[in-house]
Write a structure and sequence with these properties.
alpha+beta, 3 domains, single chain, five-stranded mixed sheet, 13 strands, Heat Shock Protein 90, Helix Hairpins, 10 helices
Length: 446
């Protein structure tokens, strides 16, 4: 799971357009559902308002019927029952007259005959009796069925209140229709979301193809860089070896001094070939995760001092001052052989890319890590060059570096080794001023 998450994060990091597209798609899905929910809420409110008007209008008709047949309760009862038979939405119709204290009402007609003669003492009846024109309209429910209740006073020809007409209009059919509409809308929204997700999936695959194409293009460029670098790095020492071998085998008399000089140069050429092969093998081992790392508690200062002393001659030949100011360094927890490999590489690079001035090695530490800083007064580099510096086969191309040999692998190998020891290598540089390479290694817990 963590591996999948890291891969997804890497894809998003390399392709910010994917993040933007994903954000837009999430917004589209959110807007679809919000619009659906909002529209359905408005539809529900509008439907309830329309049915309320229908209930009030029906109640007005019923109120007039009550006024007409008030003196003949049996005929009124018969008319109410016929109305109920013709309209299934009507749940209740009743007529009640007030008692002498106007606190309770006696039912004189009701579509439920068993209710006739019963007395009602309802707050809503009292409220409706006080409202001559509007009466009371409210939304109620029973056993999951919603209905509108409208109660209005009945007036005689002189405008006097003589009774209360109560009417109940069911919303069951309307609610069923609304539920079906809501389900259809949500199904449509879910179907739309599935289509969007399929589009996202297809979009993601397209981005993966683009990423793979870009990666293949990058690999192709790296291959070209490798062939160019390898041909140059192999050709130069091989040409030198052939030349010296030719000089030594052409039958001419060679002095002992010249012979020694030739052998020394041949040895340097062989060393260059050896270093190139070792770098390529290290790259292969690192990429296949076959690099043995044996961390232990070690002193870093003796390692730095050893290689500073060994390389002082090389630095002096270029009039470069090599200064070791590491001081007292805490005990580190890392692989001593890999640390030596990194230190040699960083010192060699500093000497190669410094034309004059000095190289100073210092140290600092915090609670978790030790930092060895290699500061030079070399040619430096731009921010863009520093950004690409730790990539495989990357070398800074300029007039100042064209005569400096190298594979473009040393820093990549060094950083990978440092990271495998839970450390890192970073660089800060100013073009024409110099560079500071910082090797970070974990402190020993002992």
């Amino acid at each position: 799971m963590d591996k999948l998450a890291s891969k997804t994060k890497a894809i998003f990091k390399r392709n910010p357009t994917v993040v933007y597209s994903t954000f837009l798609i999430v917004c589209i899905i959110g807007i679809i559902f919000f619009n659906t929910y909002y529209s359905l809420q408005k539809f529900q409110q509008s439907k309830d308002a329309l049915l309320q008007k229908k209930a009030v209008l029906t109640e007005d008709v019923f109120q007039h019927l009550v006024a007409v047949y008030f003196e003949d309760p049996q005929t009124l009862q018969s008319v109410m029952e016929k109305i109920k038979l013709n309209d299934s939405e009507i749940l209740g119709m009743s007529v009640a007259v007030p008692a002498t204290d106007f606190q309770s009402f006696s039912i004189i007609a009701d579509i439920e005959k068993e209710n006739i003669g019963k007395s009602e003492n309802s707050v809503f009846n009292a409220m409706a009796w006080q409202e001559e024109k509007t009466g009371v309209a409210m939304l109620d429910s029973n056993d999951g069925i919603r209905f509108w209740v409208v109660i209005k006073p009945v007036l005689d020809e002189n405008g006097n209140k003589i009774a209360l007409a109560s009417f109940k209009l069911s919303l069951e059919d309307a609610d069923a229709f609304t539920r079906d509409a809501i389900n259809r809308v949500y199904l449509l929204a879910i179907f739309s979301m599935i289509l969007v997700l399929l589009l996202v999936s297809n979009h993601a695959r397209l981005f993966l193809y683009v990423a793979k194409a870009a990666h293949l293009e990058e690999i192709d460029k790296m291959k070209d860089d490798f062939i160019s670098m390898a041909s140059h790095e192999l050709k130069s020492p091989l040409t030198a070896l052939r030349g010296y071998i030719g000089l030594m085998t052409d039958g001419s008399a060679i002095s002992e001094e010249d012979r020694k000089h030739y052998f020394d140069n041949m040895n340097l050429s062989v060393q260059r070939l050896h270093d190139l092969v070792e770098d390529l093998l290290d790259v292969s081992r690192i990429e296949q995760n076959r690099v043995p790392i044996e961390n232990k508690s070690i002193q870093l200062q003796p390692i730095v001092t050893q290689f500073v002393d060994e390389m002082k001659i090389s630095a002096s030949s270029k009039n470069i001052e090599l200064i070791n100011n590491t001081g007292v360094v805490p005990i580190a927890y890392c692989d001593p052989d890999r640390v030596k490999q990194i230190v040699v590489n960083l010192l060699s690079n500093a000497i190669k890319y410094t034309q004059k001035g000095k190289i100073e090695i210092t140290s600092k530490s915090d609670r978790e890590f030790i930092y060895i800083i290699f500061a030079d007064t070399g040619i430096g580099m731009s921010a863009e060059q520093a950004k690409n510096l730790f990539e495989k086969f990357y070398r800074i191309s300029s007039d100042k570096t064209k005569d400096i040999s190298g594979t473009g692998l040393g820093l990549w190998i060094s950083r990978q080794l440092a990271r495998k020891m839970r450390g890192d290598i970073t660089v800060e540089s100013i073009e024409g001023v110099g560079s500071h390479f910082t090797l970070k290694l974990p402190r020993s817990e002992k």
